[in-house]
């Protein structure tokens, strides 16, 4: 606790000193802004410069800090430690990173032990490049879908599930939805649609704060069942469609492993099926573009 | 490398290959004669192929065909003045109160029509289950023009006259296939309707009046005439259909 007080005081002093001029460089490498390299370096200043005056002298060993969203990792001098921090208190993270860095650098500290933080893992592995922690996220929720490009739009409702696996910034993502029948009139034929779209692609997280925005792009396929009514000898047809999908997902990281989300996507079908009724022949086309929206819960682990 | 090329080829083929969703048919009955016989016209209700007297005749033929290889060849020899010769394909069992009736025709050579030449018929009964009450209703007729060309008109037996023509003297081609289609709603009230097209062009439209006195319907594709020259008179018929939606000249009867 005493060390934290010292570090906090040092942070304030360094902030004042920054008005006069920033250090030419810091040895801290941060993957994101929580904590930032400057904040960690500022918190470390009172320790590496006990007089309290700001210094431009960097320790020889670089300090790497990586933001995982709900936690962060500090690597210095061959030692590595991860901390959980659902609250994303960036100032507190900076102080904790500084304490760990000071200990790893062998800087003498006051008698009190460092604060007991919910450390996840400590290792003495060889220094290595900043890595990305693999995570798995599952999104579940109701979904809505509407067609574009067919003679008459069709609206479907159902449920969707998406799974994303990978690092904090880039993940592999796949999804499936089951959408309940909806009617559309195509060429004077009323057709009930049932749609099961599938996709596989890449998720890129573009904004990683408590609000997290990601973009999904990938290939798409779909199972489309068409059941006409009002045709004398009606036949239910099933077609397989394929194409591409792009979407965005916005999550609010309210809890460590649970985040509400809302998303939207467009699926482009490369070759929509011709809808064929005798004796008229081709009476229309299946949808060229599907627009979808979903909302629900994102579970991460 | 080979796999990559194969994937590209498959992708290109997939883009160019539009899938088809077969959603059913509005066709109630068709006859394309591709079996090489007139079997589709067999009718337990008394219809079917019929020619009388000899040498009038019907047969499946490969001499001409609208689609495929076969058509029906109907030949009549109306040699006795004012006496009709007939070769008929008749449907009369279980026809709906409302439907479209379509057939394609081919006149191989010029014909001069003296008295009359009928190729399309809708018939009626005054008592639905009494065959003795059958009678004529509408006839689709071919008539000679003063310039020798043939034209199509619809004759209403109830008024003993031609229904109002929507198209003046629509031409009947010789040596080319042409389509005659009718929509017939055999209502016994003012919702009755009979509409006729030649090659997709409206010929006549009788609407807002009762049709036959009973819901019983007979449709015939025929070669019936009197005082026709030269003889024999041959007419080919192909791709006949009864449908709940309009067939039209571009209609597809089978895949």
Describe the structure.
The complex is a heterodimer of chains A (301) and B (255). Chain A has an eight-stranded antiparallel barrel with strand order 6-7-8-9-10-12-13-16. Chain A has a five-stranded mixed sheet with strand order 1-2-3-4-5, covered by helices on one side. A two-stranded antiparallel sheet of chain A has the order 14-15. Residues 1-24, 52-56 and 119-132 of chain A have low confidence and may be disordered. In chain A, helix 1 crosses helix 2 (37-48), helix 1 packs across helix 3 (90-105) and helix 2 (37-48) packs across helix 3 (90-105). Chain A is rod-shaped. In chain A, a hairpin with a 2-residue loop joins strand 14 (274-278) and strand 15 (281-285). Chain A has three helices and 16 strands. The longest helix of chain A is centred in the N-terminal third of the chain and has 19 residues, at 2-20. Chain A is an alpha+beta fold. Chain A has helices spanning 2-20, 37-48, 90-105; strands at residues 28-30, 63-67, 71-76, 79-84, 119-123, 135-148, 155-166, 170-186, 189-208, 211-229, 233-234, 237-252, 258-269, 274-278, 281-285, 289-300. Chain B is mainly β. Chain B is built from one helix and 17 strands. In chain B, strands 2, 4, 5, 7, 13, 14, 15 and 17 form an eight-stranded antiparallel sheet that branches. The longest helix of chain B is centred in the first third of the chain and has 15 residues, at 2-16. Chain B starts with a helix and ends in a 12-residue tail after the last strand. Chain A binds chain B through residues 188-189, 191, 226, 228, 231-235, 237-242, 270-281, 283, 286, and chain B through 14-15, 17-28, 241, 243-245, 247-248, 250-255.
């Amino acid at each position: 606790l005493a060390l934290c007080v010292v570090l906090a005081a040092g942070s304030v002093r360094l902030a004042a000193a920054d008005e006069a001029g920033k250090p030419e460089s810091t040895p801290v490498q941060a993957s994101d802004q929580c904590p930032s390299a400057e904040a960690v370096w500022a918190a470390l200043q009172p320790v590496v410069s006990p007089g309290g005056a700001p210094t431009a002298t960097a320790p020889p060993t670089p300090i790497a800090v990586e933001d995982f969203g709900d936690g962060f990792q500090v690597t210095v001098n061959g030692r590595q430690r991860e901390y959980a921090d659902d609250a994303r208190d960036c100032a507190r993270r900076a102080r904790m990173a500084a304490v760990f860095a000071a200990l790893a650098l062998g800087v003498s500290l006051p008698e009190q032990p460092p604060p007991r933080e919910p450390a996840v893992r400590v290792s003495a592995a060889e220094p290595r490049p900043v890595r990305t922690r693999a995570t798995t996220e599952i999104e579940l929720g109701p979904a809505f879908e509407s067609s574009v490009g067919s003679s008459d739009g069709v609206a479907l409702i159902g449920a969707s599930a998406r799974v994303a696996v990978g690092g904090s910034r880039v993940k592999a993502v796949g999804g499936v939805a089951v959408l309940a029948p909806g009617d559309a009139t195509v060429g004077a034929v009323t057709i009930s649609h049932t749609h099961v779209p599938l996709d596989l692609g890449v998720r890129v997280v573009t904004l990683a704060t408590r609000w997290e925005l990601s973009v999904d792009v990938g290939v798409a396929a779909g199972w489309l069942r068409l059941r006409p009514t009002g045709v004398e000898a009606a036949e239910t047809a099933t077609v397989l469609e394929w194409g591409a999908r792009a979407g965005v997902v916005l999550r609010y990281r309210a809890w460590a492993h649970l985040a509400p989300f809302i998303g939207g996507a467009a699926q482009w079908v490369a070759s929509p099926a011709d809808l064929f009724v005798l004796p008229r022949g081709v009476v229309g086309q299946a949808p060229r573009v599907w627009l979808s929206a979903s909302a629900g819960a994102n579970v991460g682990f | 490398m080979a796999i990559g090329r194969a994937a590209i080829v498959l992708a290109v083929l997939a883009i160019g290959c539009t899938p088809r969703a077969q959603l059913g048919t509005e066709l109630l009955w068709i006859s394309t004669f591709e079996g090489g016989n007139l079997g589709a016209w067999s009718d337990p209700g008394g219809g079917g192929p019929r020619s009388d007297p000899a040498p009038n005749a019907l047969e499946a033929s490969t001499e001409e065909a609208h689609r495929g290889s076969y058509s029906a060849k109907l030949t009549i020899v109306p040699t006795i003045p004012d006496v009709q010769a007939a070769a008929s394909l008749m449907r009369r069992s279980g026809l709906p109160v409302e439907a479209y009736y379509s057939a394609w025709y081919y006149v191989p050579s010029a014909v001069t029509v003296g008295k009359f030449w009928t190729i399309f018929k809708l018939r009626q009964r005054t008592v639905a289950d009494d065959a003795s009450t059958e009678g004529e209703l509408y006839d689709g007729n071919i008539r000679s023009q003063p310039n020798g060309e043939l034209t199509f008109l619809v004759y209403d037996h109830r008024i003993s006259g031609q229904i109002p023509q929507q198209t003046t003297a629509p031409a009947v081609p010789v040596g080319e296939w042409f389509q005659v289609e009718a929509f017939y709603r055999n209502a016994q009230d003012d919702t009755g309707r009979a509409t006729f097209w030649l090659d997709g062009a409206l010929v006549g439209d009788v609407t807002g009046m009762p049709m036959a006195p009973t819901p019983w319907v007979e449709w015939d594709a025929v070669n019936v005439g009197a005082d026709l020259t030269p003889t024999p008179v041959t007419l080919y018929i192909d791709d006949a259909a009864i449908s709940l939606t309009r067939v039209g000249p571009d209609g597809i009867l089978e895949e």
